[in-house]
Amino acid sequence: MRVAEPLHLRLLRLLRDNGAVSRAELADRLEIPRPRLLAEVSRLVDLGYVAEAGMAASRGGRRSTLVELNPGLRFAAVDLGASSVDVEVVNGRLEPVAAYAEAADIRSGPKAILQRVNELLHKAKADGAYERLDAVGVGVPGPVSFRDGVPVSPPIMPGWDRFPVRELLTREHGCPAVVDNDVNIMAIGERHGGVAHSVDDFLFVKVGTGIGCGIHLSGEVYRGIDGCAGDIGHIQVDAHGPMCSCGNIGCLEALFSGTALAKDATVAARNGTSPALAERLATRGAVTALDVAEGAVEGDVVCIQLIRDGGRRLGGVLAGLVSFANPSMIVIGGGLAQLGHILLAEIRSVVYRRSLPLATGNLPVVLSELGPRAGVAGAAVLASDVAFGEAT
Amino acid sequence: MRVAEPLHLRLLRLLRDNGAVSRAELADRLEIPRPRLLAEVSRLVDLGYVAEAGMAASRGGRRSTLVELNPGLRFAAVDLGASSVDVEVVNGRLEPVAAYAEAADIRSGPKAILQRVNELLHKAKADGAYERLDAVGVGVPGPVSFRDGVPVSPPIMPGWDRFPVRELLTREHGCPAVVDNDVNIMAIGERHGGVAHSVDDFLFVKVGTGIGCGIHLSGEVYRGIDGCAGDIGHIQVDAHGPMCSCGNIGCLEALFSGTALAKDATVAARNGTSPALAERLATRGAVTALDVAEGAVEGDVVCIQLIRDGGRRLGGVLAGLVSFANPSMIVIGGGLAQLGHILLAEIRSVVYRRSLPLATGNLPVVLSELGPRAGVAGAAVLASDVAFGEAT
């Protein structure tokens, strides 16, 4: 059964996404009587969520005063990748006031990684980014029990299974915390401030070291019964393909991902079919997916072909998901989105050819706008939502 | 944004699904104060939705009176298949009071088919099944704009595109009508009174002439942006497979469906590999999917193999959808559910092997309980919901 969203949450989100707004406009946009709005604003001012922001321009009659989110609100947004830590501190409008990014191996385990996150946040505090945090949002590269705030059987995160991530951060920073899957937070970020702005039903496909999918349905993240919805990297695309790290044969990820592409690129560099890759291998001692992207831009035929092969495979899986979910947009993000328009063209070609015409008639397949910032942007949105939700 | 369900809808559904209930228990179960409940019941009695039903057993203190849905409430439930029309008239508790089933070709077009539906309903009226209908629910074998009450580009329904089905039925019977996809209504039926009772997130897979999927997420039917979500029959399972009626190569439906199975069975009957099928072909002049089911029960190896091959292909698609949607149950229905446990065992084997262990840990894959009645059962639920929704 659906439950209506409480007034304070709608009001605070409106200020977050619009900046200073007059009381008169707030009452109009929230469709509630003026007295109720005034009482609610006054309550939220007392609680420290909302502050006065001067007078609005006249609309004729008595001038209305502007209100905005308390300028001292601060949220921490954390995006943990397989090999990276991104931390931002943002204000109530989700504008960054401090940002840190560094390499880190998620396999170091939760204690080491979360200690580093805390160090970065304490450094931000020492640098004057905040006095106290109002909420922390974290994305992790694996399935999450959103309700419990813990990773659940995450395949590439040894030691993290059921580790109390939310509890630890809450204790450390004295504020609510929220934990979600990294692809889900990227999708949330892209919907809040990116190409999927205000789109209710879309798929965010992250193509990076692995492949995953964030699912937004009816305006909300769909996480599935066990928190592992969107695990599309292990859909089989070739029954006679290579073995995947999961133990199955021919998974999408085993054929197209950062890891798979680096492997294919190394073969092409060694056997001499790709001059661009051979040159990079000779200079740097190794080639990565990024080298394939660079080689393609230079017109290297093998690099272009590798990207097209990958796009065809990913496109085949997405065509099936379009038939199943009939979304209104597909966003391609993650590190391999740098493969750019060659990848996109191939994905589009397969999806538009293979799915039901009714489902693809108005279906944009586009690249992420937020790029590497999608994750922290979404973590910030989640953190603000959880903080706002507690304004009761 | 989520909107809370109105009290009258919750109250009427509770009476529909529970029968006579005391006012005291209604107030408890709906979690509202007694005076508000009494006022609402009284309003619904005046409107003719609710009726008195005697005294409840004592709970100590003053005895509460029972109320129930008006015994005169009648809904029409219509399930239009590719080659069949099923019509039921049910009471407020969705118990059938009249039922008709006959062969009909959906390609005869909307005027002929809907005229036949109306004839059957008028016959039911003449037979005393109802005085007036309170709502009509209809399922059609193709994509539907649920909001507009019209089929949209339905591939196997020539002449039905955007035909005003809802409007025509409303005019004919002087009551609200609701139109949905046939697989969606089967899923709704199975959730209301079948194996998926009260399950919020499940997939209902119909395997019949074609293959489709009803998607229930967070307790509601998910229809997609264009009303064509769940069109899994055209997901590619073999890039080198046969051509499908949709023009693409190797769709699931082209390899496993009533049509495909009849084709494979005919080949096996003719080339003599299957004695069971050869015998039926000789006797009846043709073989169908049902003959394969019968042959398998008799132990015919080719029949068993045909079912296992089909189950493997369907299972491969479902494994991908489990990875994507992480549902809590999969229900197999439609005519080919008669292939029974051989089919089920093969589907389970593939899904459990191929999907993420976290997603399959507690995932039942089961046969429909309602069988051929799932469609009308769901159409009746939809009809009652739309009638109850108008009790304002």
From TrEMBL, chains A, B:
Pfam family, one: ROK
SUPFAM superfamilies tied to this protein: Actin-like ATPase domain, Winged helix' DNA-binding domain
Gene3D superfamilies noted in UniProt: 3.30.420.40, Winged helix-like DNA-binding domain superfamily/Winged helix DNA-binding domain
Highest taxon, organism lineage: Bacteria
Family assignment from sequence similarity: Belongs to the ROK (NagC/XylR) family.
Designated name of the protein: ROK family protein
Organism annotation: Micromonospora sonneratiae
